[in-house]
Description:
Elements: H1 3-6, E1 11-14, H2 21-51, H3 58-84, E2 91-93, H4 94-127, H5 132-135, H6 138-163, E3 173-174, H7 181-185, H8 193-228, H9 230-259, H10 269-289, H11 292-311
Parallel strand pairs: 1-3
Antiparallel strand pairs: 1-2
Helix pairs in contact: 2-3, 2-10, 2-11, 3-4, 3-10, 4-6, 4-8, 6-8, 8-9, 9-10
Amino acid sequence: MDLKNESVVTEFILLGFSGQWELCIFFFLAFSLIYSAVVLGNVLIMVTVTFSSTLHSPMYFLLGNLSFLDMCLSTVTTPKMITGLLTEHKTISIWGCMTQMFFMHLFGGAEMTLLIAMAFDRYVAICKPLHYRTIMNHRLLGGFVILSWIIGFAHTMSQMLLLVNLPFCGPNVVDNIFCDLPLVIKLACIETYALELFVIANSGLLSLICFILLLISYMVILATVWQRSSGALSKALSTLSAHIIVVTLFFGPCIFIYAWPFNSFAGNNILSVFYTVITPLLNPIIYTLRNQKMQGAMRKLWFLLISSTQNF
């Protein structure tokens, strides 16, 4: 079916954070600062991991890839949301909407898989330290990254191939800060019950399974640390609890939005903000910027940059 020829709707209206002008200005400033911090923080991590010789290890390689996915995921949705706060007509073309959903699920699916790889890396480092370098070799790391992109691509394509053929000829209002599958599907002019179940099985189960696997890995790590040294348990618990908080903020909204019955969606702007704006900001802070080795590498690169600038 040709979507352009068959569909009356050519654009969608994103309600987002509609309200008083003063409130929109506040959100504009707040989200602009947060997005700037997301880009700056994640770019800083990627540059540091790339150019610092002390960070050429499996853990930091995976963290660098996570920063790239975080930045991409936030960039797909946040700039459009920010500009929409200052415009009266918050519209997005139908193909712009499809593109946004495609890349959001591509980066989101890849990030979920990469978080599992990072949990496996920590499991090997803590539970099998003597075999860490042998197990976490370059081939396995490359395989993890490639697999994350393959799963992300398969995840988004399996849904988008069905979505792009839907006719839209009635309501075109999306009550969210960006286009998202559950709300857009509801606007189609045909019965979409089977497609809704498919999205629940696809996105909902993917989020839930990844979340459960991460929690299991954290519990195994804590149990291993406790058996070896009860004194080290408090430090491990402090680190992993921060990880669990960030993972919950990312997966919790995803599980609720994609695994909940479709007729229950309403006003989920706040949930959407968590996994597209807040989590990409917290990931570099929790996973990387609190790390003393990362901080030392950043200071060293900064001094080298200052020295090279002075030499010119």
